[in-house]
Design a protein that fits this description.
- By secondary structure, this protein is mostly beta strands.
- The protein has one domain: Thrombin, subunit H (Beta Barrel).
- The protein is built from one helix and six strands, in the order E-E-E-E-E-E-H.
- A six-stranded antiparallel beta barrel has the order 1-2-3-6-5-4.
- The longest helix has 11 residues.
- Pfam families: PilZ.
- One of its GO terms (molecular function) is cyclic-di-GMP binding.
- This is PilZ domain-containing protein.
């Protein structure tokens, strides 16, 4: 018989963005580029060294969104997936960002 995997999908749709930010973990800090956001999480490309692992608490500072606190859900090859803390002011900031400022970034094709 065929076994079906119970894989949980994303709970919120991701939107592509291009934002610079700073990521802090303990006493470490690195520049980063946020490449996607949702109401519950963000995808980050690290531009420097930052030693984090799944479960690490990080703080992300951007000019567009502000200060966001979250937990690393995955880290691989200079990329991070961060789940925004549910009990913090970060969720309100993300909602305000989507309501007032967000515009989907679309690829530019040049020929």
């Amino acid at each position: 018989m065929e076994q079906r995997l119970q894989i949980e999908g994303r709970k919120a749709n991701r939107s592509r963005v291009r934002m610079k930010g700073r990521i802090r973990h303990l006493n470490q800090e690195s520049e980063g580029r946020i490449y996607n956001v949702s109401r519950t999480g963000i995808g980050i490309e690290l531009l420097g060294r930052l030693h984090v692992a799944k479960g690490s608490h990080v703080v992300v500072q951007t000019d567009d969104i502000g200060l966001i606190e979250g937990t690393v859900r995955w880290a691989y090859g200079g990329y991070l997936g961060v789940q925004i803390d549910q009990s913090s002011n970060s969720l309100a900031q993300m909602s305000a960002y989507f309501r007032n400022f967000h515009q989907e970034v679309r690829p530019v094709l040049v020929r």
